[in-house]
């Protein structure tokens, strides 16, 4: 019995497809295989980006540049101290509309994280659920916006 190698001749080039020219003469074309990344890699990259965002929010909390909770975020928007509002993705429709309308009125950017309120609460060092946080420092806003680029938010 003959041993087979794991690498067949021409495996890198893909399949060979025989076609015919208009004149009727056969020709051979090589189809290249498309490299498709597994869905796990995309999901893992997204999860890592969300974890980085939550870590940056925690850093802002330690720096004292965060206002936590929907009521306090709305007060910070009214006072003009909020530079960026970050909202959990699982907020109720009323809370989401309230934050969206306030941010639009005061001209502050609103980011909706693909994370739950419990994950956002854990990032800011609270138990339970946190619907929204506001960042009050401009340099911290730049850091969070840079971390949000892979997420597309």
What labels would you give this structure?
single chain; 153 residues; alpha+beta; four-stranded mixed β-sheet; two-stranded antiparallel ribbon; elongated
What's the total helix number? Answer: 5
What oligomeric assembly is this protein in?
single chain
* Gyration radius, rounded: 26 Å
Unreliable spans are 6-14, 32-41
Q: Bin the helical content.
A: 40-55%
What's the pLDDT, averaged over the residues? 83
Outline: elongated
Could you give the order of the helices and strands? Answer: EEHEHEHEHEH
Protein structure class? alpha+beta
Report how far the terminal alpha carbons are from each other: 58 Å
Sketch the major β-sheet.
4 strands, mixed
Strand residue content = 15-25%
Question: Care to give the gist of this entry?
Answer:
This protein has 153 residues and is α+β, with helices and mostly antiparallel strands.
Please describe what this structure looks like.
The protein has five helices and six strands; from the N terminus they run E-E-H-E-H-E-H-E-H-E-H. The chain is α+β, with helices and mostly antiparallel strands. It has a four-stranded mixed sheet, with helices on both faces. The protein has a two-stranded antiparallel ribbon with strand order 1-2. The chain starts with 14 loop residues before the first strand and ends in a 5-residue tail after the last helix. The model is unreliable at 6-14 and 32-41 (pLDDT under 50).
Show the helix and strand layout.
Blueprint (H helix, E strand, L loop, with lengths): L14 E6 L5 E6 L7 H25 L2 E3 L1 H10 L4 E4 L5 H14 L2 E4 L4 H7 L8 E4 L2 H11 L5
Parallel strand pairs: 4-5
Antiparallel strand pairs: 1-2, 3-6, 4-6
Helix pairs in contact: 1-5, 2-3
């Amino acid at each position: 019995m003959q041993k087979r190698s794991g690498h067949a001749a021409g495996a890198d080039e893909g399949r060979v497809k025989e076609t015919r020219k208009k004149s009727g003469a056969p020709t051979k074309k090589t189809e290249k295989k498309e490299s498709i990344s597994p869905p796990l890699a995309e999901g893992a990259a997204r999860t890592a980006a969300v974890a980085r965002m939550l870590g940056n929010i925690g850093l802002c909390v330690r720096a004292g540049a965060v206002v936590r909770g929907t009521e306090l975020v709305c007060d910070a928007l009214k006072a003009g101290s909020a530079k960026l509002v970050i909202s959990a993705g699982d907020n109720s429709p009323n809370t989401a509309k309230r934050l969206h309308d306030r941010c639009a009125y005061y001209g502050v950017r609103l980011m909706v994280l693909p994370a739950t309120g419990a994950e956002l609460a854990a990032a800011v060092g609270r138990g339970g659920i946190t619907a929204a946080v506001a960042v009050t420092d401009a340099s911290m806003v730049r850091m969070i916006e840079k971390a949000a680029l892979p997420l597309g938010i």
